## 1
Amino acid sequence: MSQPNERPEPTPSPEPMPQPEMPAPSGRAPEQRTLRKPRSVRWESAWVRLPVLFVPLLAVNGLTTLINGVADATPVTGLLSGVATAGLALGAYVWLVRRLESRRNPAELRPANARSELRIGALLGLGMFSLVIAVIAMGGGYHLEGWGTFGGALTTLGLMTCVAVTEELAFRGALFRVLEEKTGTWGALAASGLLFGALHMVNPDATVWGGLAIAVEAGLLFGSVYAATRSLWLPIGLHLGWNMAEGGVFGTTVSGSDASHGSLFTASVSGPEALTGGGFGPEASLVAIVICLIPTALFLREAKRRDRFYARAGR
């Protein structure tokens, strides 16, 4: 019992219940979203993961080029070598990603999407370059001379398969994907495109204009395809279809290099470099740049529509 003169102790008021955080407004523009690093990533800094992933993949690209250069003596060995080295490059990418990102299975290489997206990308690449050649031919710059060799085209197919796989793994799978965490989609597009163009500056007949053309028409195009789909299969197929049409079907120079080992047609090119691309090949022509910018714009619009366009970190 309490004493008569004692006042009872006041009952403490209950602490207020924590209020749940309200979600961000859904009407926010897609480009204002920031791409966040997956929680499973072991290496916290993108600036650390980027060189550890990108540089080995560039080395894989160089190594597979040497292997294919030795194995291209016959169409069969050339084709098998190109496909096998492409498979080894895919395995190297998966292994590196799993080691660096806490055993993450790369969703950008989901096996279920491989067949359909490779087929669609290859057909799109073949169609786009066929349109480029058609326009150049109507301008008097491309002259079809006759049939080439089916065996040579097979060898070229093997080589271009490996080129498409290794370059897309390095520049879109590593460089674009990881850099986007820090620079956003626009920064990743610009940087990966410029470095992709710079890679082709080492080719025998490379020019500064040719490198810039590759950066715009190929670097931006392949980057926009990845941004819209978040899959590497479609840009790999597109890259393969374009290169195969260029070097393995129509018999033109590929990016300033004599990478082709034969084609279905033999042809010659003459006329102003703005039309034909000169010694660098049709990729340095204004025709190719204009034709590639159209799907680039469409894929970038699709990326925004799908809410897959991200702002620079810290904004």
## 2
Amino acid sequence: MKVLANDGISKSGILALEKGGFEVITTKVAQEQVANFVNENNVSVVLVRSATKVRKDIIDACPGLKIIGRGGVGMDNIDVDYAKSKGIHVINTPASSSESVAELVFAHLFSGVRFLHDSNRNMPLEGDTNFDGLKKAYANGIELRGKTLGIVGIGRIGQATAKMALGLGMKVIAADSFIPQVDVTVSFFDGQSITTTIVSQSLESLFKEADFITLHVPAQDGYIISEKELAIMKDGVGIVNCARGGVIDEVALVKALDSGKVLFAGLDVFENEPTPEMAILMNHKISLTPHIGAATGEAQDRIGTELASQIISLLG
């Protein structure tokens, strides 16, 4: 049986699938050619990340398709219910990339509180001629320790983020309409651990209380953070989104950054991917990455082997 990993798959995932008797194709097929390629090559399994979309048209056009797999958590690029109604298995890897995404959240938080995103732009330009000026410009850093991190969505990635925050000595609060409370265990290198319970609170109270806010939610119909929500936040709040584009009103965010209401933002995802707005890309108060939350070698290895094991158990 053939597997098309259209957005790539780790070497460990390929080896596991080949060991299970599958042929793995890693050719990158253009979106409009996916259905033809699947049919012409008798592909049984299509694996995607966030780039390739598997909608009703592809599902209808490919009667031989048995599994659609998403390397990662969110499946908003797949018509999941429709695929299942056609007898196609839809799988994903919700646990594989949690730590990688959480670490990127903190990369953005550290960048924001110490102005690294901006100083890394300006030091090459002015470091030799305006060293003292830049030193003064970036002199008002903030420590994360002792501050309150508000986590919107306390699922697997939210919990991984909470563990890192607790390890830094931050206070952690959360809002999640599906998870009323959760026990979070921070494990240390020597086998010791500490467990604390995080009780979900209202979004409004989180927005009012948090010094920094990070979003860990699936794609939404509307904004979670827009002008109204920004208005009730603390002055000088920091906001990070490594979840999905479209959950923050970017026009309202830029306005809040320009006014100083928001100190900085860290964005890994955007309303208009893969062509984010220039007002976002050029704003010196935003730390930017191109949707790379799960893009670590360790996460991709876990994703590849987990997908392989699910495919083998379903079709092997």
## 3
Amino acid sequence: MKNKSITALVSAFARAYHAEHNQIKIFDDRLARELLTNDEYTNISSNMSKGITFFLPEFTGTQEECLRAIVDWQLSPSPLGRAAFAEQALQNAVTLGARQYLIFAAGYDTFAYRQPDFADKLQIFEIDHPATGDDKQRRISSLHWQIPSNVHYIPADFLDPDWQKGVLGCPAYDPDQISFSSLLGISYYLPKDSFKQLLSAIVMLLPSGSSIVFDYPDELTFTPQAGERTQKQLMMAAQAGEPMQASYSYRDLEQMLEELNLLIYQHLTPAEINVQLFKAYNDSQPAHPITAFDNVNYCLAVKR
């Protein structure tokens, strides 16, 4: 990827919009808006609201009402849900002794700059393609944010077979320290063999007891049985030049992780995501419900 990721920017927009427009939040990314330029925020808002007939053909309302409907229906569920799941799992991992947080394909993630109290025990590593990472660093510099002393940016092209050298070469990284890794929004865009290779490489970096969290599309994603939102998500990703390439049954996933010496510790289906992560928000905003995509699951796996 030579240019900034459109899907990463749209995900940041969804997190920013949700944080700005709700008191009770699924996930509170209070800094996401600052990472987007005014032009980016305005352009995404305009383009999305103009696409109401694509997303919700029967909907009528003002431009702002159209935007809210699209954000809540199509854009927000996955970025909000998986971030909430990952950071809850991270906090639990820190309680159990994890002292390193590896954020793979960090994109415009802001955890490193809005660290909760429990993060003071962590070394945080943002590992991303140089193009995206450099773009994010430019944005941070223009905002005059101070980079916390426990945050480390590591450029890595995951297509390079030796990308792990960048992690191992970072003076702050300890390969013997229990770690927590996140790979959010990645499994969709890699062929199965490539995703397995990436997981395998990550597992080799980590000691036993370390954990990895990721989201993944189920086996119906590329079939006629996929939900309407899923089909539109596939179209949007393809039009952005970042087509989705893989899907997994639970059995596929379990077998792959078993081969990599990983044990599924927690797994959430869409129905469970709605109950565990979305209920408080939906109870507070019955006029603007957010529901999990019917083809997306979350997984937390632990290295044996």
## 4
Amino acid sequence: MTVTPLGIPRRLLEFTLDGEPVRAPEGSTILDACRAAGKDVPTLCEGDTLTPKNACRVCVVEVEGSRTLVPACSRKAEAGMEVRTGTERARHSRKVVLELLASSVDLSTTPRVAEWLKEYGAKPDRFGPDAARVNEEPRVDNGLYVREYGKCILCYKCVDVCGDQWQNTFAISVAGRGFGARVAVEHDAPLTDSACVYCGNCIEVCPTGALSFKSEFDMRGAGTWDESRQTRTTTVCAYCGVGCNLTLHVQDNEIVKVTSPHDNPVTHGNLCIKGRFGYQHVQNRD
């Protein structure tokens, strides 16, 4: 018989969310409480396996008594606080942030952004044709994954997952300043000359498609990538005895990429190079 430890129960906090009383476990963020209450607050840089970085500022809300808008992804819920998610001030801030992001980088492969642009009435083209854009060619310097800085919003999620939050490889960091800032390896060298171990955990957390499987990149270029035709099957990696869970994304009877469930207690969404990229033998029909 397996006994599951219950742990110490967390105290429930009571506060007001958009005029309605709600309860949330102590330590929860405002974003956690919003999701529990069924309120859709947009976010790009927040990751369920990472410490919030407060980089994108799309999830800002109003808190009574606060001089500025606060990021819902990192602000902890407090007893008695009054939170408003849909005020004109918060919506206007989200609108401007989305406009600035969409006018400077390619968000075409970012989930839900088209929906948010419409919801908040954001018009990125209002800055005119001369607005500065990150127009860089994709960097294809290895056979596993592709870097497209023209889609990068500098959310820091890839840096964090490669660093002290999960992988501890520290292969990448943010180089440069201002509009010239980029996520890069040391000396901005090719990935093959860097400390990268090709775990692909940076791809797992990238919210915009700036990092993608080489297989996905090639299929998108050929116009054959179609997520509506893909099935997902979760299995256990057979390379070693750790027991990592793999989710196989299959299209036309071919594995096109591999991810890992974020709620799995073994992996928390992370894999090694063999688990994430070593699936070719499965498709060997010879």
